[in-house]
């Protein structure tokens, strides 16, 4: 579904995806007709998190402009560990563990990419890296690499202080070989990735030039932090996952609606497909109206990841709660507790921990003492308040921590 008269490079640049590019003029010209591009993804978890959305959205834009996209799962390279952006060596993974994650990750990518008729491919680099013969690899590939140049790369220089293992030192060669393999087998001429991958991607472009005399380009995305300086997709509770069993659609929606005012325009450009004019219009809202822009951001991002129905449910639950509504909405994170436990009652601070609204009992006590703990909309006067069945309505009770974090407690028969 190409888009008449527009070049995807200009779209990516306008929306804030481009940090560095090997040759801007060449890449723009290359992208004026269909090409094949790829991005590598780390399979160290069985779900992507919000921090992976920039590359995923970049692939989605490429596909919308008629380019073939390849998501490369690093099943082979994850057995080595990428030193880029890391201060210590990664825990190495077994082939079995890596292989098990592939299907989960593909299912998540299918929300954003169309895999029908070969429009998008997901391949695992273990396929071509695991069978490599070491002596042949050194002779055919290793001879093209200068150790001095490799050590000058940012990713290696950072690690020289803490210690760089020989196994990690090989990582650049393997990623470069990935690019060469995809160039040879899929006519792939553009690799994209986070800016910490710049050195590795250029190494691949250089290898293709040396071995095949071919043209292959590089493009990197900015490494995002929020306006508060937090890493993208990290919260007090941990990572915000794309898997609904790890982060519910409601919690996902809440992550986006709680975006800092300063990030709203940037996130609408990066994480939705809304036209730029509409984004500018939303970003111009001020004061209390900025909430409308955040609601659009939360709805659009949740719709992309979890589908329109889940986004609608999350939006309705959020509106009900923040509009002082009731406790019945199923989209709110719910903890089921046996009714027997409430006969004698459970101290409020313990319940807040069990509901996931505080990490420790001490944290829960402080929250309530400072006036941030609520039950069914009423502020708790004491952390020692004992919650009993009398606090429930239709077997449901609503807890709130601060202004924005909610959890439902649902009674179940013992």
Question: Could you give the topology of this structure?
Answer:
Blueprint: H1 8-14, E1 20-21, H2 24-30, E2 36-41, H3 53-64, E3 68-73, H4 95-109, E4 120-124, H5 126-129, H6 134-140, H7 147-152, H8 154-162, H9 166-169, H10 171-186, E5 188-194, H11 198-212, E6 217-221, E7 234-235, E8 238-239, H12 249-257, H13 264-271, H14 276-283, H15 290-306, H16 308-322, E9 334-338, H17 341-344, E10 346-347, H18 348-354, H19 361-369, E11 373-375, E12 378-379, E13 386-387, E14 396-401, E15 405-412
Parallel strand pairs: 2-3, 2-5, 3-4, 5-6, 9-15
Antiparallel strand pairs: 1-6, 7-8, 10-13, 11-12, 11-14, 14-15
Helix pairs in contact: 10-11, 12-15, 12-16, 13-14, 13-15, 15-16, 18-19
Distance between the termini: 55 Å
Characterize the largest beta sheet: strand count, sense, and whether it forms a barrel.
6 strands, mixed
Chain-averaged pLDDT: 87
Radius of gyration: 25 Å
How many domains comprise the coordinates? 3
Strand content: 15-25%
Question: Unreliable runs, pLDDT <50, ≥5 residues?
Answer: 85-90
- What is the approximate shape? elongated
The CATH H-level superfamily of the largest domain is HUPs
| CATH architecture group name of the largest domain | 3-Layer(aba) Sandwich
Core attributes:
single chain, 414 residues, alpha/beta, Rossmann fold, Tyrosyl-Transfer RNA Synthetase, Structural Genomics Hypothetical 15.5 Kd Protein In mrcA-pckA Intergenic Region, Chain A, 3 domains, 6-stranded mixed sheet, 5-stranded mixed sheet, 19 helices, 15 strands, 43% helix, 15% strand, elongated
